[in-house]
């Protein structure tokens, strides 16, 4: 105790709270993150004239309402599919022999690390009218005419699920791995059927992981820009595209700022829920 | 028994079947792109009528592709160095600091990672227009540094958690200056965290699209911006060629990372 006190006093000559180390990062974040975001929000209530009319327009028109609906529906559907499909995979990954799980993990990580545009390009090609998926389905005689799979929300949902799946599988795998198999053996010994074991033991025990994974995917999907812009077409806009469009094409900083604030508030609120209820650091 | 691989019974076949399908879903588009990049069809017919290198020739014949790749590389390299250095200092402060509000600051530093990138992009773009930083390399570096830094703080912070500070203090007691002790004792001890921070920071910048679209100018484009701009025009197989090279690069990085991890264990 005395030794470490001497050493840390010696390191700076004065009492060192360690705050100095944070100065470069703090400057960066203050000047280039907090300041510009605040300035943008300020513009949303000041341009073109002071008042809340930007928010009134944004929340009062059916055009923008459709954008909000699109955003929440796609994010919701992507979240549900990712959890329903991802959970069994995470389950198997948690218990299968290591040589196999390593292969599956390599595939998941490869897909995660592959450039986002390359992956989205793949889906643009696969889903187009003359693409492989439509051709295969027609070849099998399942459909007569090509399905519209791209430039609509179906395409966006497929492309986003592809991106989000790894973000569900990896944390869920960790959660399921940390469950003691003896608990399930005990449940079975006490006469629980497989279904009861699953519904009343395994699922409740993995629920914190499911909730936190779902929340993360939902938040990430809400603010996604690239995939909706490329797979969704111009008539099926999502919120992030709306923000970009206000600024880039319409040069309307007031509306752009207002749309950004809506996105920001929803995201930060969900992030706060995540921190409060599912913080891994606090759970420990 | 639901967590015993051997005793899953019929459920096991279901789980394995689903996992195989998900693996195919994840890996087939990547293989598909690689195959198309060697296919001769302009219209991306699959399977391709014949095989060719012409999309790669076209890719390398256009100096803008190479130039944008070099721009990406330069920006990502600078961002990596800055992110590791600033991230190391910040992680040290967050790990050892005794000041109030440490947890709040940690959350603040990680926020750029959670925030929708488009909000950050639009906000920075507005500021950079005022400061004259829009369309400059410096603007790019600042924007990418903001999203790379959280990765460094997390990776190095985790490594510091597992490092006993008294080892550093011992070096100081043995006559090293505090900074000498940090550089020659602490930095090597957390080198795996620093390596992870460098890889993640590099990829965060190298693959970043949204900020880049706003920071770019007609004369200053990173590789993702070039791909984005081309994609908005048509689905030319040249993008398949560029994507395949990017995928190959990713695999090389993954193999390197796993080799290094193995080397550290032994």
Structural account:
The complex is a heterodimer of chains A (284) and B (266). Chain A has one domain (62-283): Orthogonal Bundle (MetI-like fold), CATH 1.10.3720. In chain A, helix 4 (62-95) runs antiparallel to helix 5 (98-113), helix 9 runs antiparallel to helix 10 and helix 12 (239-248) runs antiparallel to helix 13 (253-278). Chain A contains 14 helices and no strands. Chain A has helices at residues 2-12, 23-46, 53-60, 62-95, 98-113, 116-127, 132-139, 153-177, 181-189, 194-222, 226-231, 239-248, 253-278, 280-283. By secondary structure, chain A is mainly α. The model of chain A is unreliable at 1-14 (pLDDT under 50). Chain B has 266 residues and is an all-alpha fold. Chain B folds into two domains: 5-37; 62-265, MetI-like fold (Orthogonal Bundle). In chain B, 77% of the residues lie in helices and 0% in strands. Chain B has twelve helices and no strands. Chain B has helices spanning 10-37, 54-61, 63-96, 102-114, 117-131, 137-161, 165-173, 178-189, 191-206, 210-215, 223-233, 237-265. In chain B, helix 6 (137-161) packs antiparallel against helix 9 (191-206). At the A-B interface, helix 1, helix 2, helix 4, helix 5 and helix 6 of A face helix 1, helix 3, helix 4, helix 5 and helix 6 of B.
Rg calc of chain B:
23 Å
Question: How many whole angstroms does the radius of gyration of chain A measure?
Answer: 24 Å
Number of discrete helical segments of chain B: 12
State the helicity of chain A in percent bands: over 70%
CATH architecture designation of the largest domain in chain B:
Orthogonal Bundle
Q: Describe the global form of chain A.
A: globular
Q: Biggest sheet of chain B, in brief?
A: none
Number of domains of chain A: 1
Unreliable residue stretches of chain A: 1-14
User: Which two chains share the most extensive interface?
Assistant: A-B, 99 and 92 residues
What's the level 1 CATH class of chain A? Mainly Alpha
How much strand of chain B? under 5%
